[in-house]
Amino acid sequence: MRRVKYLNNRDLLKQIHKSKVSFSSFTDDEYAQFDIILPSLEKVNRLTVAEAKRNRASRIGKQAYEDAREAGDKKTKLADVTPDWRKIEKTDLVFRIMTFDHIPKDSTRKRKTKTIADEHTKVNFPPFQHWKFDENDNLICVGKSHWQGGMQNGSFNKTHGRITEELGRMFLKLADRYGTRSNWRGYTYNDEMRAQAVLQLSQIGLQFDESKSENPFAYYTAAVTNSFTRVLNIEKKNQNIRDDILQENNLNPSFTRQNENVFKEDKEKLAEFYKSIRRPKADY
Q1: Are the C-beta atoms of residues 135 and 188 closer than 8 Å to each other?
Q2: 104-108, 134-138, 258-262, range with the lowest pLDDT
């Protein structure tokens, strides 16, 4: 099993893409890779086509550069293997369009809908379609998320995919490393915090929207922080209940409650001391 040494946005984005592709269907496997993300087909114009060509040229160059480095070629430069974006054909581009058009509607899900997503069946990540130009310069659909089968004769399916094993290991590594931080590692229920964080990541991991950000690491870190804090608040609440019951029965509460009482008494004594030595302001 391959070990995850460190986490970075590039590897995270790669595994997120692979996971989402497993929930999708394409007329050809090469159309699974997109060159630009757009909110609608109306945004496909001369400027976005040029941007898609630049993105495609950059991606091809980076991949060729990494392959050369892995092969032991240290003389290859990124500029030497990056193709000229002007020479890329428009028919080679793939546009990812964020849309709910192929997602069935669900009127029983929510009474009051605030967004388009509320009107459709709940899915595990923002749905999309892949489009490209054909030889006649017409846009055709070549892929759909949450779909199984052909573009015309297929059907909606949101359960036939799965996250990659590599992304799962990244979730485990992220939760483990976060649990070793100085402000968390001292808690006796640290394992429960990590387990809750992994569960949360597995639920919202694919909800990251690449069209809005290219920083999934920050998105996942925020989710882990919320999970750790949630467990901490629950444990504190339960501990306060136990301490109250113990005190009501004339028993010693936890050391945390005892220390809080000591600190409270010391703070009150210190406040009285400063109050007693405070000198009145001189009258001039």
Answers
A1: no
A2: 258-262
